[in-house]
Amino acid sequence: MASSASVHGMWSSRLMFILAATGSAVGLGNIWRFPYVAGENGGGAFVLVYLLCIALIGIPIMSSEVLLGRAGRQSPINTMFGLAERSGVSTNWQLLGWLGAASGFVILSFYGVIAGWAMHYVVLGASGEFGGLTGAGAAEMFGNFTGNAWLVLLWHAVFMLLTTFIVARGVGEGLERTVKYLMPALFVLLVALIGYAVTTGGMGDALAFLFAFNFDKLTGGGVLIAMGQAFFTLSLGMGAIMAYGSYMPKDASVIGTVTTIALLDTGVALMSGLVIFPLVFANGLEPTSGPGLMFITLPLAFGQIDGGLVFGTIFFVLVTFAAITSSISLVEPAVAWLVEHRKVSRRAAAATVGGLAWLLGLGSALSFNVLSDFRLPGGLDFFSTMDYLSNNIMLPLGGMLIAVFAGWIVKREIPQEELGLSPGGYAVWQFLVRFVAPLGVAVVFVMVFV
Ligand code: PHE
Question: What spacing in Å lies between the alpha carbon of 201 and ligand 1's midpoint?
């Protein structure tokens, strides 16, 4: 039967799927974006809403993506098409796959810029630039770098070439190995950095900031951003997890696997917050510093600790790798579709998608220098507009429709068979996917946009 094997090959094991999906989930979203959006939106209450979104919206939608992907065994676009056909409903559901590919493309455009920053910080770290920095000095270093358009463009191009090259060669064992060694190393370094953060005297303030649920500070717009962050950090709503699910072996448990990934991902985000906020408060920096927050705070720690030169360099190398294992999953849905449908080679498909994303990314790269005063309709700069559109609108919309499709539209045998749950477990899953997840997204949309 056509649905039992994927044309793109198959993960060797359940562990491989967990590694690949964790590689996709853990990235700049956890280390760079979570702390700064939490900081901009007042901390505690934002974090609580984010955690609720992970549990009640994220996990149900992630399980939907995995089961649909595994049942369809093709690129998200063709998976949606095939499953709609098998279920006797309109094949227009494939448009959901298109929305996802477009979201991945928009995200990659600015993701590559920030990943380029991380690469530049590898060089800064290795050349001893973090030694003896003050808060003001670190902010100045960041401003000088991002103000240098050519340098930002250079690193952006390097990162995009790297992503394109890896995707062109095919996503396989290299990914498995990278994630297997990278994740534990990242965990260890984060724990060590939390240890340092405790000694700065800022930990008390950081804990209060992150976990005191002060709802006065949270606006409706903040709730939308918390929800968007949950989608972004779990790689949900655009088919990345669906594409990886299509390579997942049949015997692995969907719910168990998905919960593991969500826990790992959330753990990394919270750890990153516990490193960054003590540094913010101990050094008199502002939690609302925006996209530069991680790049301003972490060098302070590496400038202080023994062996900071080595650890600082290694840390930014790890961040770069974490970004790569995410960026390849941003491209995968579009590339997989081009390969299946247009019968073009993987190389040509990767070059096309990577090249176009690079082009769009120029606007984001220049948002921090040449175009810093430029505003798009909506009042945001180019980078912030791309970020807002993809994370706060396209991903939640895609995710909501995926839940509707998995919960209401697709033939019942498909989720039943893929999930392999007890009748009680299945009823809970169905309730979350039919009602809680889509209505959760809808309520936030209505609250903010109507
Ligand atoms: N989850 C990734 C991160 O946190 C970003 C991403 C979003 C990757 C959507 C794939 C799809 O960095």
Answer: 32
Number of domains comprising the chain: 1
The protein residue whose alpha carbon is closest to atom 7 in ligand 1 is 235
CA-closest candidate to residue 61, choices 354, 259, 291: 259
For 213-266, write each residue's pLDDT tens digit. Answer: 989 989 999 999 999 999 999 999 999 999 999 888 888 899 999 999 999 999
Asked whether residue 2 is assigned to any structural domain, the reply reads no
Q: Per the domain annotation, does 33 fall within a domain?
A: yes
**Number of the ligand 1 atom closest to the C-alpha atom of 234:** 1
Dist. CA 238 → ligand 1 center (Å)? 10
Give the C-alpha distances (Å, rounded to integers) separating 121 from 32, 298, 344. Answer: 13, 10, 37
pLDDT in tens, 10-35: 556 778 888 999 999 999 999 999 99
Q: Which atom of ligand 1 is nearest to the CA of 25?
A: 1
User: Residue 8 domain-assigned?
Assistant: no
pTM of the model: 0.95
CA distance 136 to 379: 29
Residues with CB under 6 A from ligand 1: 24-25, 27-30, 107, 232-233, 235, 238, 240, 326, 329-330
Residue 74, domain extent: 14-448
Cα 416 to ligand 1 centre (Å): 28
Query: Where residue 282 sits, what CATH number does that domain have?
Result: 1.10.4160
Identify whether 1 is part of a domain.
no
